[in-house]
Structures are given as C-alpha cells and as structure tokens.
Automatic annotation (TrEMBL), chain A:
The keyword Transport applies. GO terms for biological process: siderophore-iron import into cell. One of its GO terms (molecular function) is transmembrane transporter activity. This is Iron ABC transporter permease. Its main location: membrane. The keyword Hydrolase does not apply. Keywords: Cell membrane, Membrane, Transmembrane, Transmembrane helix, Transport. It holds the Pfam family FecCD. It comes from Aneurinibacillus migulanus (Bacillus migulanus). InterPro entries: ABC_BtuC-like (IPR037294), ABC_transptr_permease_BtuC (IPR000522).
Automatic annotation (TrEMBL), chain B:
This is Ferrichrome ABC transporter permease. It holds the Pfam family FecCD. The chain crosses the membrane at residues 21-44, 76-93, 105-125, 131-151, 163-184, 204-224, 251-277, 289-310, 322-339. InterPro entries: ABC_BtuC-like, ABC_transptr_permease_BtuC. Gene3D superfamilies: ABC transporter involved in vitamin B12 uptake, BtuC. It is a multi-pass membrane protein. It comes from the Bacteria. CDD domains: TM_ABC_iron-siderophores_like. GO terms for biological process: siderophore-iron import into cell. Keywords: Cell membrane, Membrane, Transmembrane, Transmembrane helix, Transport. It comes from Aneurinibacillus migulanus (Bacillus migulanus).
C-alpha cells in the first residue's frame, strides 16, 4: 500500500487537473457556440444567452447549437467512462466499446428499427436508447459467452479477438440492411453510422441525460472495487469480493453508457480508448482520481470533434466520429506499439 | 516428397497428395458447374439450352443471349478468379508469417487498396480501369506495409493479436478518411456498395484487364510454393537450409499485392476468403504448400461462385452484397480460430 502522503499529493493534483479541464471544457463550449454556418461573435452569444438576442439568434443558439453541445459533452463523458470500466474489468488497456463490437450491436438494433419502420425516418428519441441498449446488451452477452472457456475464464486476448469477429459479423448484417433502404433512410443511416450527433434537439438531451446522470455516479461509487478488479483477481477474491457479480454489474453499466451514447450520437469510436488512457497518464491508475478526468477528457474530445467537423468544410459537415477516428487512430497505433498485448 | 523429409520438433510433414489431386479435379468440375449454374440464375429466367446456344449460336437480337454474354459470363468468371486470388493471398501470408489468422481483409490490405480506389473515384473519376488496377496494387501494398510496420516495430513483435488489432485500426482510420471524402464528393452510395463487395458490375473489359494479373500472380505463387513450405517451418530452419528468406518474403509480398489489388479493384473489399479456404485446405491435404496453393485457388473459386449465386437469389431481385455473405460464413470460423488459440496466439 502506498503511504497516505502520496494519495494526498495525487488528490490535490487531480483536483487541479479537474479545474483546468473544466476551464477547457467551458472554453470549448464558448468556441463551439460561436462556430457554424451562421456566424456569431462571442459578444452576440453572450447577449443571446442573457435573453437579449434577436429571434434568429435565439433559434440558432437555443434550438440548434446548445442541445447539440450538451449532447456532445454527455456522449463524450459516457463513452469515455464506458471504456474505462471495460478496460478495468478486462484488465486490457485496448478495450473500448467500439473495438469490442458493442457499438455495432447498438447500431444494428437501431438499423433494424429504421428498416422495419421506414416511414419514421426520425424515431422517437426515448425509444432509440432502449433499442440500442438491447442491441448492445445482446452483443455484450454474445461476446462474453463466446470468449468464456471452462477452466480458463475470460482471457483478454480472446475477448478482443471475439469482439473484433462479432463486430465484423454485425457490420456485415448492417451492410445488407443498409443497402435495402430507400434513399432518404440510407443517407440518414450512413451519416448516423459515421457518428454525426444527429439527434440534436432538447428531446434527445432529455432522453440521454438520465442514463448519464445515474450511471456516471454509480461507476464512480464503484471506483474502489474497480481498483481491486483491475489489479489482480486473486487479491480481489481474497478480499472477499464476489468478482463475477461485480464484473457483471459493472459491465452492464458500461453497456448502458455506450448504448445510450451511440443511440444519440451514432457510432463514435476511440473515445472510450483515449479518455481513460490520457487520464491515466495524468493521475495514475486509481479510479477515484482517474474517472472524473476520464469523463472530462472524453467530453472535450467529442466537443472538439464535433466543432471541428462543423467548421472544417464549407458546404457539408464532417461527422464528429470521423474527426475523432482521424485523431484517435494514430494514438491507438501508438498505444498498440507500446503495449505488451 | 522425397526431398522434403524435414522434421520439425514434433511431427514429420504430413501431406496427402492423393487427396490434393482429388480436390483439384473435383474443384475444377465444381467451378465449371458453378459457372454454368451462376449463368443460369438471375432475375431473368434462362435455361441451360439458351446458354448453350448463346455460346455456339450467338444471336445478337436475342435478349437472353445478350444478357448471358455481356453480364452473366464475365460475372461468373470474375467470381472464380477473385476467389482464387483472395484464397491464395491468404495461404501465402499464413505460410510466410506462420500466422494462423492472416487474411487480406483482417490485415487491412483490402482497406488499403480500397482507400486508394476512393481517392481515384474522388479526384480522377474518368481514369480507365487499366490504370485503376495499378493504383489498387499500390494501395494494397500501403495497407500491408502499414499494418506489418506497426506490428513489427511494436514491443514484443508480430503477435497475431497485434496484427489483427493493427489491421482493425488501419481499417477504421482509412474508412474515416474515405467517409469524409465521400461526403465531400458525394460518392456515398458508390462507396457503400463498393465496401460491401459485389461482382454484379464486372464486365468483360474489366475481366480482360484483371485476368492476366491474377493468372500471373497464381503462377508466381505456384513457383514460390516450395519456398513457402520451407519458410513455414520457421525462419531459422529456412535460413539453415540455405534459403534467402528476405528475398522469398519480398517476392511473396509482391504476389499478395498483385492478387489482392486486382481482386479488390474488381469486386471491392471481400474479406475472410483468405482466412477460411487455406485452413480447410490444410486440414484436408496437409502442410505442403505445393498442394495447398493450387487447392486453395480451386476451392476459393468455388466458394466465391457459390456465394455470388447466393448474392443473386437471397433477396431477388435485389443484390445482396457478396462481402456480407462471406463475412457471415467467415465470422464463425474466425471465432473458432480465436477459441482454439494456442500459445502463439
């Protein structure tokens, strides 16, 4: 055990970092509120925020940009924490809801809905997270069962390979379904799959918020359990922890976070991988310090990805998911080259 | 076989030349039968006798004859060629790297070729196919180079898991760029259909351009096969036997590039053929690549022709993407290999 003094140092360091990241997120919010096809300088944004804006400014800010910004912050935090939990319980630094195929399971469920109810091109927002949850949950169960072996349990290697395989299968089925859609649904699904934050109005904020508000604190409350789980199974067992139950519950939380985020934002990869890694580099592996930072890094990533995607090209938006994978891919490669896998 | 009485630590080399000859014969018949079956199936109902007549008594006023000659024949032939090419690519890679889960799709080689093709679609849409195929070779080489480079320079070297992860990430990176480009140039639908894989668009002129490349690639693979068998015993053994392993690996890589590039430029990113076929063949005929490579070529052709018939009839009159059909077969196989993992995996 580390002496208490190190923990105090760590705590004050992580508090400082949280404040710093908080400022960065606020800064990002302001920049994001200013960017878009309709340009609004900071002074006008402030005026509008305090109720002094014109009708057009009000619509742009309150009905279009603000919900989208809030959604990107929530999704970022949700995906990053989901990744942190998966990495913790599988003791594998390369786990992430995208790589494990959970995102594609959620996506397939949503796609099935769109295929069979083709008239409702925008499905009811409260239904989408549940559908995605069912898809993601089933996928997680399939991956878990397929990578489980008697005597050997779950090996991290097998888990990753199984995740990649199941993800490939899910996307094969998705492609079959996608190509049979009518053109307008096709456009919707394709941009959705790229991670476009399509559901950007207040209803979607309302649908997403409960998941994040309940599950993030729950995971944080479990940080000590995760500290033990991520170190050593034998220690965990001898400390009287029922490993399998804890692991299962935490996995369910991770799936819930990933699914609700994917349902609203489309499949955004790499956030679940990058968030926890960056946080661990800043404050070390203890979850009580690392989790809040993970959430903020994730929020910052998606916010930045969406803002960049909205402003990079003049005529069209690049989905946040594409921007993030262009940033995240190289980092993953870097991690892959350093890790021992 | 007499000269190849090498022994690895445990087992002597098992080969079943009789079985292999049998597979090649049956396989060639299956391909011919499959091509005929593929020509007969489709939205327009056509009988065998019409097919026969279209070959030996071609009538350009007969609509069915035209369909057969200009659409179905090149499609069936392209299927056979592409199947052989993907399967042999997989066999070469599995043999050279001793990696049981090598496949052009999993290792990002298809993605690399596809990416370069997207660049071509976007920037030089009028480029003739003769040149497109050359770009596809370059793309396949870039994809392979990137994935192997990442895994090679990683701490702990080329483990199969690391190769697959590198392949997955290179794939998703490349897809990200392709998607951004497709949004910008509005080639979304083309891209989706392309990445799903399908032979429905193959025409004679495409077949005539890609066929020589694939045939050259297959012959080169046969010439290399003996060296690949030796390499598959391990690099030290091969070097001890006086083999110039670097040279052989270099030539092998070029052959994979040509076979994959030619196939991907014709049918898009179809994965898992190179994973499934060589495993089945090894199980049937043993570990001598002089038999594995021709048998893989034949069975790969059979697999793609059958899958393509499936692509036509599953959701008639719509085409089901070939890549998806083969993935649905390939994923369980991949899962099986992942479960069977031994120490090296």
């Amino acid at each position: 055990m580390r002496p208490e003094i190190f923990n105090q140092e760590r705590r004050s360091r992580s508090i400082k970092l949280i404040i710093l990241l908080g400022v960065l997120v606020l800064f990002g919010l302001v920049i994001s509120m200013n960017t878009g096809r309709y340009s609004m300088p900071p002074s006008e944004v402030l005026q509008t925020l305090f109720g002094q804006g014109s009708k057009k400014q009000n619509i742009v800010l309150f009905d279009m940009r603000l919900p989208r910004i809030i959604i990107s912050v929530l999704i970022g935090a949700g995906l990053a924490i989901s990744g942190a939990v998966l990495q913790g319980i599988s003791r594998n630094g390369l786990s992430d809801p995208g790589i494990l195929g959970i995102n594609s399971g959620a996506g397939l469920a949503v796609l099935l809905f769109v295929s069979f109810y083709p008239t409702t091109s925008v499905a009811p927002p409260f239904l989408m997270p549940f559908l995605a949850l069912i898809g993601a949950g089933l996928t997680a169960v399939i991956i878990y069962v397929l990578s489980y072996k008697k005597n050997d349990g779950i090996s991290p290697t097998r888990l990753l390979l199984t995740g990649i395989a199941v993800g490939a299968g899910m996307s094969a089925i998705s492609i079959i379904l996608t190509l049979q859609l009518n053109p307008s649904n096709f456009e919707f699904v394709v941009t959705w799959q790229m991670g476009s934050l399509w559901g950007s109005n207040w209803k979607f904020v309302g649908a997403l918020l409960p998941w994040i508000v309940i599950l993030l604190p729950y995971v944080y409350w479990k940080s000590r359990v995760m500290n033990i789980l991520s170190t050593n199974e034998q220690i965990a067992g001898s400390l009287g922890l029922s490993i399998n139950r804890e692991r299962l519950v935490l996995m369910a939380a991770a799936v819930g976070l990933a699914a609700s985020s994917v349902a609203t934002g489309g499949s955004i990869g790499f956030v679940g991988l990058l968030g926890p890694h960056i946080a661990r580099r800043m404050v070390g592996p203890q979850h009580q310090y690392m989790l809040p930072i993970t959430a903020m890094v994730g929020a910052l990533l998606v916010l930045a990805g969406d803002t960049i995607g909205r402003s990079i090209m003049e005529y069209t938006e690049v989905p946040a998911g594409v921007v993030i994978s262009l940033l995240g891919g190289p980092y993953f490669i870097y991690l892959l080259m350093r890790s021992k896998v | 076989m007499a000269r190849l009485h090498l022994r690895t630590n445990e087992a002597p080399i098992r080969t079943r030349p009789l079985m292999a000859t049998f597979i090649i014969f049956i396989g060639i018949f299956a391909i011919l039968f499959g091509i005929a079956a593929s020509i007969v199936t489709g939205v327009a109902n056509i009988s065998f006798s019409t097919v026969w007549n279209s070959v030996f008594a071609y009538d350009s006023n007969n609509e069915h004859h035209v369909i057969i000659q200009s659409l179905r024949m090149p499609r069936a032939l392209a299927g056979a060629l592409v199947g052989a090419a993907f399967a042999v690519s997989g066999a070469i890679m599995q043999g050279m790297t001793r990696n049981p889960i090598a496949d052009t799709g999993l290792l990002g080689i298809n993605a690399g070729a596809g990416f370069v093709l997207v660049l071509v679609f976007a920037f030089i849409p009028s480029m003739p196919f003769e040149y497109i195929i050359l770009f596809s070779f370059i793309g396949a080489g870039l994809g392979a180079g990137l994935v192997y480079g990442i895994a090679y320079f990683a701490r702990g070297g080329l483990t199969p898991l690391r190769l697959v992860l590198a392949g997955a990430v290179v794939g998703s990176l490349v897809t990200g760029v392709s998607q951004a480009l497709s949004l910008l140039f509005q080639i979304n639908y083309d891209l989706a259909f392309w990445s799903a894989g399908g032979i429905s668009t193959a025409e004679w002129f495409q077949v005539s351009v890609m066929m020589p490349w694939i045939i050259v690639g297959l012959i080169a693979a046969m010439v290399l096969s003996r060296s690949i068998t030796i390499l598959s015993l391990g690099e030290e053994v091969a070097a001890g036997l006086g083999q110039r392993t670097k040279l052989i690996k270099g030539i092998g890589a070029v052959v994979v590039m040509i076979l994959t590039g030619a196939s991907v430029s014709t049918v898009g990113g179809v994965g898992f053929i190179g994973l499934i076929v060589p495993h089945i063949v090894r199980f049937l005929v043993g570990v001598d690549y002089r038999w594995i490579i021709p048998c893989s070529a034949v069975l790969g052709g059979v697999l793609v022709i059958c899958a393509d018939i499936g692509a036509k009839i599953i959701a008639m009159p719509y085409e089901t993407p070939l890549g998806s059909i083969i993935a649905v077969l390939g994923v369980p196989f991949f899962l099986y290999l992942a479960r069977k993992e031994r120490r090296e995996l």
